[in-house]
Amino acid sequence: MKRKPKAIFTLLTVSMLALSLLAGCGGKSATETTSAPTAAPTEAAAPAETPAPTAAATEAPKSTELEGKVVFWSMWSSSEPQSKVIDAAVAEFKAANPKVELEVKFTGRELGKLIKPALDGGQQVDIWEGDPEKLIGNLKDHVLKLDDLIAQPAIGMDGKSVKDSIIPSLMEWTKSLSTVAGIEEGYYAIPQQPFAVLFFYNKALYEAAGITSVPKTWEEFIADAELLKKSGVAPITFDDAYRDLFIGGYLGSAMGSDWVDQLVKDKTGEMWKDPIVLQFAKDIQNLTDKGYFSKKIAGSKYPAAQQDLVLGKSAAYLNGTWLPNEVSETAGADFKWGSYQFPTVSNGNDKGGQQGLNFGAQALLINKDSKNAAAAFELVKYLVGKKAQESMVKDAVAIPATIDTAWPAPLAEAEVAFNNAKVNMPWGFGIDNGGDFSANTVIPVFMELVTGKLKAEAYVAKMADEAKKFYTGK
Question: Name one Pfam family in it (predicted).
Answer without folding.
Answer: SBP_bac_1
